[in-house]
Design brief:
Elements lengths: L10 E6 L2 E12 L5 E7 L5 E4 L5 E5 L2 H10 L8 H12 L3 E2 H10 L10 H16 L5 E5 L2 E4 L1
Antiparallel strand pairs: 1-2, 1-5, 2-3, 3-4, 6-8, 7-8
Length: 151
């Protein structure tokens, strides 16, 4: 990667020997000879690392903050995502529901548009993934087998 394209506060994948790791650029310094030196922080270990060779930077990694900002601003067509629509349906119903029922209500009320043969499987997978990844921070809980509820 060219040194001119590397910016502070962005996340990059770098080569460390035969391995790869992810770092965030904290500071960029210019040495007396004109060479750029990059002070970085390893994302996984939080340890500082100084990189003097821009060729070690392989590619920029798009972070989740971009995704979160897009979600906050809403979609361009004004519809909710399938996951947000499922959460809205569960909040409105105030009871545990099966995913098929959640998907039907979300589509019928025009909360979202799910293109595909099995929208209920798409929503179910997304809810289960959120429960697994976010844990107690998840918007959903599994009430019983096949039933989901909003927190």
């Amino acid at each position: 990667m060219k040194a001119k394209k590397i910016e502070t506060n962005k996340v990059y994948e770098i080569a460390v020997g035969k391995n790869k790791t992810t770092v965030q650029v904290v500071n960029i310094e210019r040495r007396v000879n004109g060479q750029l030196v990059f002070d970085c922080k390893n994302i996984k270990t939080d340890k500082p690392i100084r990189i003097a060779d821009a060729a070690r930077f392989l590619k920029e990694i798009k972070t989740k903050t971009v995704k979160a900002e897009r979600a906050k601003s809403g979609r361009a067509d004004g519809l909710l995502s399938g996951l947000d629509a499922a959460h809205k349906v569960l909040l409105e119903s105030r009871r545990p529901m099966k995913v098929k029922e959640i998907a039907e209500i979300a589509l019928r009320n025009g909360y979202c548009k799910l293109n595909g043969a099995t929208p209920e499987f798409t929503i179910s997978a997304a809810m289960q993934r959120e429960i697994k990844n976010a844990g107690n921070e998840s918007r959903f809980i599994k009430a019983q087998r096949g039933l989901f509820a909003a927190r």
